């Protein structure tokens, strides 16, 4: 056989031992048409079968037919190696266990890296969907321009200005939300007659920010080429959560206001109290607007991507912390509950002490007084140091890796978008230079 320009000679007895492989079927087949279908070419004069395949991998296949053992080289690509083995019909089970374990680890690692690379590239680049925009019946080109304006900040100066304005409105909204909770700002009007009340100003700022966020969300919703993908996007869900609480609050306040106008306040005291609790929750949900900065922050998106990829490690960490809290709180309660004036009156009361100690914060508001209780406290703190130190390095290394890759993909996408925008300008400039050069050449004078 001739594989990739390299000739090999194999005995018939070596091939018939593996009749399900390609060369085994070639050796045992009696039909000439069947033999020709198993190879790429055949030379009748030399009785040589030609295969246009990788000779490096076939060298391992050749050694397998001779020795009965399939070896794996570390320098080979796992995907290409499996593809070549599938072509020759040789199964991976013929490899030694040590080689197979190392190969499967490299294959799984490569698959994981390729998956992460695809997800990072999808996060760095806004969805193109050129064919979806072309197939749109209603204002396809206009919606495409609007989509580029909202999703690609470096596609034009206007798109970049919208991105900067969105970040500024997020910061203004968060600052207004924080100032609205300051007691001095709430009672500023009562301090003097000339002092203006800041609450109406903050409310107007709040409404202005919500109006901008609502318009931004509606424009993205109207211009998206794929509505299903838009609704499942995490960033778009954050945008919806940022504007939804205020509208729900206004709706609930209007309902309670109508009940009071109709004189039904006495009969609905319980429902109004529940509505007040819901309103407090709605006001608390406004703080999630800070997550809108993730749309314009590479670090926040890399951090969220790290948590999604490391959810198993984070889950194990939470499980170990929970087990430690339950174990050490029960141990300290068993030795401290008989001490007069102790704060460890029950195991649930000891959870706070165990959580503070295992996180190595140590507020000092609750502490054991017996020697055995202090020994348990030392063991709890030591367990927390060991437990918190293990996953931090893993998370930090992965975050640094994902952040650098995401930054590189974003830089590539930005360069591509800028190249598309400036291509026509460069072409016009080059054409103008060519025309100017041709016009400046002197024309021959007639004698």
Automatic annotation (TrEMBL):
GO terms for biological process: action potential; protein homooligomerization. The keyword Transport applies. The chain crosses the membrane at residues 157-181, 314-335, 375-396. Keywords: Cell membrane, Glycoprotein, Ion channel, Ion transport, Membrane, Potassium, Potassium channel, Potassium transport, Transmembrane, Transmembrane helix, Transport, Voltage-gated channel. Signal peptide: none annotated. Residues 1-93 form the Potassium channel tetramerisation-type BTB domain. Residues 164-405 form the Ion transport domain. It is a multi-pass membrane protein. GO terms for molecular function: voltage-gated potassium channel activity. One of its GO terms (cellular component) is voltage-gated potassium channel complex. Belongs to the potassium channel family. V (TC 1.A.1.2) subfamily. Kv8.2/KCNV2 sub-subfamily. Potassium channel subunit. Modulates channel activity by shifting the threshold and the half-maximal activation to more negative values. This is Potassium voltage-gated channel subfamily V member 2.
């Amino acid at each position: 056989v001739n594989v990739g320009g390299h000739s090999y000679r194999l005995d018939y007895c070596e091939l018939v031992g593996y009749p399900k492989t390609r060369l085994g079927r070639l050796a045992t087949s009696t039909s000439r048409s069947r033999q020709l279908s198993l190879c790429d070419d055949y030379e009748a004069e030399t009785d040589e079968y030609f295969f246009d395949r990788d000779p490096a991998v076939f060298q391992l296949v050749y050694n397998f037919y001779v020795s009965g053992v399939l070896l794996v080289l570390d320098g080979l690509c796992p995907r290409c190696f499996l593809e070549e083995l599938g072509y020759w019909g040789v199964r991976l089970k013929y490899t030694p266990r040590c080689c197979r374990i190392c190969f499967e680890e490299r294959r799984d690692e490569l698959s994981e890296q390729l998956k992460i690379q695809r997800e990072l590239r999808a996060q760095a680049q806004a969805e193109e969907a050129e064919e979806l925009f072309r197939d749109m019946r209603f204002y396809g080109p206009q919606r495409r321009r609007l989509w580029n304006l909202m999703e690609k900040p470096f596609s034009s100066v206007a798109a970049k200005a919208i991105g900067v304005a969105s970040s500024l409105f997020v910061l203004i909204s968060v600052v207004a939300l924080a100032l609205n909770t300051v007691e001095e700002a709430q009672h500023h009007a009562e301090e003097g007659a000339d002092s203006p009340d800041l609450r109406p100003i903050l409310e107007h700022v709040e409404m202005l920010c919500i109006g901008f966020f609502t318009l931004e969300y509606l424009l993205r919703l109207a211009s998206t080429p794929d509505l299903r993908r838009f609704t499942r996007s995490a960033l778009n869900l954050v945008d919806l959560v940022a504007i939804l609480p205020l509208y729900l609050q206004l709706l609930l306040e209007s309902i309670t206001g109508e009940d009071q106008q109709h004189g039904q306040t006495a009969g609905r005291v319980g429902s109004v109290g529940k509505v007040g609790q819901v309103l407090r929750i709605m006001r608390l949900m406004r703080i999630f607007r800070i997550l809108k900065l993730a749309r314009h922050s590479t670090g926040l998106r890399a951090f969220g991507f790290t948590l999604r990829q490391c959810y198993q490690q984070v889950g194990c960490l939470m499980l170990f912390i929970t087990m430690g809290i339950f174990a050490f709180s029960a141990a300290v309660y068993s030795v401290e509950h008989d001490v007069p004036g102790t704060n460890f009156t029950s195991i649930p009361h000891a959870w706070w002490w165990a959580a503070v100690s295992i996180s190595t914060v140590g507020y000092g508001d609750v502490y054991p007084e017996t020697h055995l209780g202090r020994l348990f406290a030392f063991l709890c703190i030591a367990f927390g140091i060991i437990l918190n130190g293990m996953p931090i390095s893993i998370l930090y290394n992965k975050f640094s890796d994902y952040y650098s890759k995401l930054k590189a993909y974003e830089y590539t996408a930005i360069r591509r978008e800028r190249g598309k925008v400036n291509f026509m300008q460069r072409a016009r400039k080059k054409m103008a230079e060519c025309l100017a050069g041709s016009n400046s050449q002197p024309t021959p004078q007639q004698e």
